[in-house]
Each structure stands twice: as structure tokens, then as C-alpha cells.
Amino acid sequence: MPNVQRTLVVLKPDTIWRSIVGEIISRFERAGLHIVAIKMVKPEKEFLYHHYENIWKMISRRGQKTFDMTIDMMSKLPVIAMVIEGVGAVEFVRKIVWSTEPRNAPAGTIRWDYAHMSFAYADAKWIGIPNLVHASGDIQEAKQEVAHRFSDKEIFGYEPLHIAFTR
């Protein structure tokens, strides 16, 4: 049985650029998840390197070219980083967002509804794939990513209204 978990969600520069931040955030809230930390930042390349290589292992998983394109894309505009909490939040958020390549996302997911590009197209154009959202891939990754982006003082735990109301 899944426990209450915290996971990292980052609204990428393409979400900011398209002005769909509220639409994306509402998808998580409507699903019953709640935000316990949020901030808008423009991460430095060193910060992004730690996230995408030290935690996510992008160079070994997708190659140096993809890593370089991603760092370039992620440093163009600010991002909105959030810690989202809920029962089984890590897996549940991944289902709402779906996997990295929007072309393979099922209907109803964020990447299906708001993005459509394939890895092949992005690679041929030498661009990072605009897939709107980063979401932690598993519980261990979520713990590392949350700790990398937020201090304990920046995370606020509270009982959601729908839970408090049932007592």
C-alpha cells in the first residue's frame, strides 16, 4: 500500500513561455495532490548539471548531445519548481505527466495534451525536447531532487482540506 510521498515537479521554460503554468498546476491539484513548496528560479548551468547528470544520469542514458541541448533549453527562461505531496505521489505524478517523449504519451496526460514532439525531431533540429514538465522517476530520485532544490525550511506540510474534513 503506497504511503504519502513527496515528489519534485519542475515546470520547464516551455511551460513558462507558453503561459500555461496555471493549467498544468491545476492538473495536479484536481487529482487531489497538493503543493507543499513552490518557487520560480532561473537555475545556473552548474545547478542543472547536478540535477541532470549527478542525479538523473542523462549523459550515460541519452548522451552528451542530448545533455547539452537540455542544459541549453533549461537555462533560457526561469522554471517553476514544486514539491507535490500525496498518497503514492511519485508514481501518480508520473502517470499524469507520462514519460519523457511526448509523442508516446497516452491521451489525457499533460504531455499528450500540450506537447507532441519526438526525440528524433528534436535531435535533428538540435534542440531540447519541449515536454513541459520534469517529474521525478522514482522514490529515491524524488528524495534527491527535492533535497537538491529545496531546503527543509522551504517545504510546508499541511493536512489537505479534503482529509481534514473527513475527521
Can you walk through the features of this model?
This protein is α+β, with helices and mostly antiparallel strands and 167 residues long. It has a single domain (4-164), classed as Alpha-Beta Plaits. It has ten helices and four strands. The protein has a four-stranded antiparallel β-sheet with strand order 2-3-1-4. Helix 3 (45-55) packs across helix 5 (64-74). The radius of gyration is 16 Å and the shape is globular. It starts with a strand and ends with a helix.
Q: Summarize this, please?
A:
This protein has 167 residues and is α+β, with helices and mostly antiparallel strands. It is 47% helix and 17% strand.
Features:
alpha+beta; 10 helices; 17% strand; 4-stranded antiparallel β-sheet; Alpha-Beta Plaits
Topology record:
Blueprint: E1 4-11, H1 13-18, H2 21-30, E2 34-41, H3 45-55, H4 58-62, H5 64-74, E3 79-87, H6 89-97, H7 110-114, H8 119-125, E4 133-135, H9 139-149, H10 161-164
Antiparallel strand pairs: 1-3, 1-4, 2-3
CATH-level-4 superfamily name: Nucleoside diphosphate kinase-like domain
What's the number of structural domains? 1
Shape: globular
Q: Find the count of extended strands (DSSP E, 2+ residues).
A: 4
Number of helices: 10
Strand fraction equals 15-25%
Distance between the termini: 21 Å
Radius of gyration: 16 Å
Could you name the CATH topology?
Answer: Alpha-Beta Plaits
Could you give the order of the helices and strands? EHHEHHHEHHHEHH
CATH class: Alpha Beta
Overall mean pLDDT stands at: 91
Helix content: 40-55%
Structural class: alpha+beta
CATH architecture: 2-Layer Sandwich
Strand order of the largest sheet: 2-3-1-4
The residue ranges in which pLDDT falls below 50 over 5 or more consecutive positions are none
User: Biggest sheet: strands, sense, closure?
Assistant: 4 strands, antiparallel
